[in-house]
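Subject: mismatched residue count in predicted assembly?

I count 1058 residues in my input, but I want to confirm that the predicted structure covers every chain. Input:
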Amino acid sequence: MVIIRIIDLWKNYGEDGSGAPALCGTNLDIHKGEIIALFGKSGSGKSTLFNLIAGLDRPTKGRIEVEGRDLEDLGEKGRTLLRRTKLGFIFQFFNLLPTLTAFENVFLSLELADRSKPELALKALRDVGLEGKEQRFPNELSGGEQQRVAIARAIVKNPSIILADEPTGNLDTSTGNQILDLLTRSCRESGTTLMMATHSPLTCHYATRILRMVDGVITEETSCEEISH
Amino acid sequence: MKIVTKSFLRYLPRRLSLSLLQLMGVACGVAAVVGMTLSAQTALKSFGKAIEFLRGKATHSIQRPVGPMEENHLVSLSRDPAVEWFSPVIDRQLSLKQAGQVRLLGIDPFLDRTLRPEIARVEWLGNKADATENLINFLTDERAVFLDHRLKEEIGITTEKTLETSKGSLLVKGSFPNPSGEPLMIMDIGHAQKLYQLQGLIDRVDLILSDEPGFLSRWSKGFLIQSSRQRSETFSGMLQAFRLNLEALSLLALFVGVFLIYNTAMFTVISRRRDAGILRSLGAKRFEIFMAFLFELLILGSVGGALGGWIGFLLTKLLTGLIGTSISSLYFFLQPEPVVWSIWILMIGILLGCSASLLGGIIPLIELIRINPVQALSGRAGSRKSSRRAKKVALIGLLILWVSLFLFFLPGSHVYVGFAGVFGFVLSASLLTGVILLMLHPFLRKILVLLGGLPGKVAAGTIKQNLGRTGVAIAAFMISLSMSIGLGAMIGSFRQSLIWWMDTQIRGDLYIGKILEAEVPEDFFEELQKIEGLGGIHPYRNVQTLYQDTSINISAVDAKVLEKYARFGWLEGGNENWEPVKQGGVIISESFSRRFGVKTGDTITLEGRQGPVEFKVGAIFYDYTTEHGLVMMDRSTYIKTFGDRTLNNIGIFIDHDHPRKSELIQEVRKRAKARGLPVLTGAQLQQEILEVFDTTFAITRSMRVIAIIVAFFGIAGALLTLFIERSREFGIYRALGFSTDQVAKMTLMEGLGMGIVSFILSVGVGTVLAILLIKVINIRSFNWTIFYSPALKPYLVTGVTAILASIGAAIYPIWRVYRTYPQIQIREE
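Triage response: the counts match. Full output below for your records.
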């Protein structure tokens, strides 16, 4: 089952869309439960693609369908609702709200999805190995712990899709591995589609499908070896 | 509470120092408005209460249009069928050694108790048991007086006691309740006549009339009859310009306050951009972010407003006194009651704080909900966008400037239109700040590099790069400094004009008598005329009357003496303007001319003792004694018209080269002293006038200080926000080899840079503001011309204030730099 369909997607920078292109006619089908590693250098258009899939940004041309519905047809309200219920976001710099505790950061996701059950947030934190650290603020946590909170925040609402933009980009190799292991395991168990933007070959081993993005165009890759070249 | 809201509110305790600064900004803005408005209202309310109390149950009053009336009219009045009750009054002022000036009412205790029953409720200080004996003592002892309770307590009188006054010693026999709060002294009318040498004369008669038209038909000729409502309106009308001035100051305070709150809200928005981006990426609706931020703004507004209400209340202690003194000096003797604390002051503060927060926060709020989450998550908006935005804002500024110019040139428009124009100009100047800052940047960079080397260079860049933050703070600070320069230059020019005017009119060697309280006996004038060698003896009378139902002043002078010794400033012509005065015409002040649209050659009609009299206007002269208008005529014309021979003052002129000049001066002094009359030299009189002037502008000066304090919090908030926002950058600078001292210096240079730019801008804006206040506002509200005299002082004072305030604002962030080191790291919060 195709969960995300991208058809002839273009995105040009600049207010009137006449600037340099970030995406040049990308086409892509993503199926439910896939774990995708999207490789590409900085500025290749990975983050732009994620922002478009999440409905945070609008394409210059082309279409994105999530669970069969065109994002453009959903309107602002529909796209917001999509982010609340169907999409989880994980960022390179964690993007936790600094004024909320680990628990509150996770609970926020539930509250927005209208499922305000504290036990779910506590369970999510327990699942990512942060039991006992629920009341700590982000600045009292290590980088790896902060990313675990971000993962818990993404998985707690049981979304259909998780978009992880450089989830290990700010972590050391060992912590990065732990995070990737945790994230992919969690997605596999729940059947969540995971899309990871990365330029670290490490991610490749956790993915079921590998994509490469060069100058705004996506190509399929067959193995991790190709990525290292 | 929703977590979204909680995430915003947590910033308040988390960034406590910044929250406190923001809170103080709101509080100061609100305090300025509450303090000024409440003081003005209290003073004006006390004024109204005093008028009401003095009026009592009287429905009307009758008096001569000018000067005292003869008491023999009382018999006819008592027989008039329309008069239900009457009470003759002597209404004067008196100086007490222990309590300054008070109002002295001379009344008939038996007649007056029907009109003013409060006064009759006397508490005796002597033998309290025998009221009849006390009353007889009061009626027979010609120095006996009653004081109101508050005055009695203020002086500390518990038993019968002698008081030293400008009219000799008086004996306090008792006290009475006075709800008006105006210090009041009561005397038997017969004794008051003697005290003021008004035998056979009274100031007015308060009446209860049953048939107004009938009474008017019998008494109109030669008398001024006013209903109580008319009388109140006349008094209130006197304060119109003054009230307007206070309202404008309150509005100005509100403007600065709202600006500062906008400043505060803008900083909050900037510091919440990233959070708003995260929240949007997680699926938070715009409305939820809007509500969370609104809630935060309202909390700041409520707490700051409550605090501002309380500080404003404390401010009223100072301002009410200042306003009372100004009203007393200029219009009507008044000692306003102190403002009483009420929970409503707090409520008003909260309401103001919240309203101003909403008003100031509306644009930042819109910006926050329109935030692009992708941009917000990728970091701050670039400087290119800031400069583009600055240009857009400048275009709006230019548009407002054009509207303001249109308002200034609108012919014959009301002073409120003038005020709207001034506010428009100030607003446009603040909107143009961003673009001007960009234009001035190369120059600022040079100065900061010169002062601070590399940290100065980085600081200059920071100010430009963070235009969104620094631009608003600079604009707020610039407005305050412009107000300081504008008001300072306006007051300075007014003072210079006043000095010039005094030099044209107050040229005598000696002045005998005080206009407000001490009248000079006519026989003393005659006595002086017998002294040989005096060049000119100038009898002066100044009295208030009505013209076209509004209060004006009439002065009686000796045209020949003034022609010889004074150098009047005429709108047209020179000393030949005295000719028509000598022939029975009048000259009018500029304020009279502008107020009533009367020009040279026109005819005005004044109500004389024998009915209306027409006078031809011979010339118009510059005058700053009263904004209500002054008609000047020769003493002979005055006596013929009004039959009033009272003298307020005598001026003595002696030729400069007279060989016996000092001997003559001594002789006049000796004779005046023998009569107990106060004597001032020309220089002393000028000094007294300048003191009154300075007192009058004490409120305006205090507003300047408040504006600077408000702006100080603005710039301190901006610096602290920059510091908090850029702690990661500081870490990078440290990594690149900057020492902590250099990072601290960078912060200092940022503060100084903002102060320098604000000052440079304020020089231009403040000068234009001064010119607008002088050429538009003053003429429209006071009807007189102030000559703009450029002076360095307001600029120097403001420049020093700007530098000190910006350095002061940087102290706390600098302290934080030293305190935070070495924790400043290159990492996210």
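Chain A touches chain B at residues 51, 54, 56-57, 77, 80-85, 87, 89, 91, 93-100, 104, 107-109, 111-113, 138-139, 153 (CB under 8 Å). Marking this ticket as 'not a bug'.
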